[in-house]
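Support request, priority: normal
Reporter: lab tech (M.K.)
Component: structure prediction queue

Hi team, I submitted a job for Phosphate-binding protein from Enemella dayhoffiae yesterday, and the status page still shows it as pending. I've pasted the exact input below so you can check whether something in the sequence is tripping the parser. The sequence length should be 367 residues. Please let me know if I need to resubmit or if it's stuck on your end.
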Amino acid sequence: MSRHRPPRRLGAAALAMLLLGALAACDSAPQPPVVLPSPSNVYACPSGQLLVEGATASEPMVSSYISSYAEACRNRATVVWSTAEDSGHESFVNGLVQVATTETWLTAEETAAAQRRCQQNPAWHLPTTASPVTIIFRLDGVEELKLSPNTLAMVFSGQVTRWNDPLIVKENPGAKLPAQPIQVWYPNRPSGASEALGRYLARTAPLKWSPRNTTPNWRGQGQGKDRPQDVVSSVQAKSGTIGFVGAAQRGDAKVSELAIDEGAGPLRPTQEASGRALTAARFVDPGSNDLRIDPASLSAPGAYPVQSVTYQLVCSQGLPVEVTSLERDFLGYMVNPETQTGLPAIGRVPLPDGLRRRTQEAVAAIR
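Reply from support: The job had stalled in the queue. We restarted it manually and it finished. Here are the results:
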């Protein structure tokens, strides 16, 4: 597990800049955090330190939250961020951090451990944003493609191996598809994008996709890369390639986006189509503040159904009051409607009003 935890307490803005320095050591072109809109609400900004951990893919987003919260609080509160390949699950259940930013749910074993850590109280998954899982490709001379879930499943499982396969040709009349091998790239490390796409294909193409390939680290046909950015650069580098990443990791790469066609026309990973999906969202346990979203509920007319939802994993109660006060304040900032309007600038989808209000209610219920 890798960490970027500073050796001393820092104001949130200073911490955000320290994190950027750590990123610079690993990435040749780090980007400063986007400053999100400052809500008009007056935040309590309680003193103390909140420890948050998540996957590297979430780091730019959380850095933006931290720097923006610091500005709103004039550095009175301290939020510390670190990274982990398991999105902070292990550190959370072992009591090393108070919040885990994750795109995957706790397993049954982790859920039991989290309840013990939370003083025999349940842990909650609180949605704060989402990112559409984008199927990217490069095929010189072809700018637009659409595939049915069945054909897409066959591509990623190695059952369709050439771009001029009759199935692809049939679904893309008029496209000049070459007799070229399909090179698949996928994320090596566990990711919410992998889990979201795997679950979607298992649900919509059950005869072509193995139910085993629904975990955050399933492996299909092709080659893997550790970082989402490397999946993008590998697809961009050579014609005949295809892969998938969260839209937040796609950036401005010169690759094309594939549309999914379930039979009612092509669906593309736009903000509007993603918002429709989240508006249709239903919870796995509607009577609880554990707000895990049922992936099957994201399929709706005009909605892009493959969404990687970002959750903040928290104890419902059981932590010291000084921690929960800062936790409620910071999470409340994350789901403030004004803050949320800045999320599209970092490739994230704001929560629709109904889902946002439900998350705000759960945040307020943390004790």
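The two ends are 29 Å apart (CA to CA). Residues 12-26 form the longest helix (15 residues). Let us know if anything else looks off. Ticket resolved.
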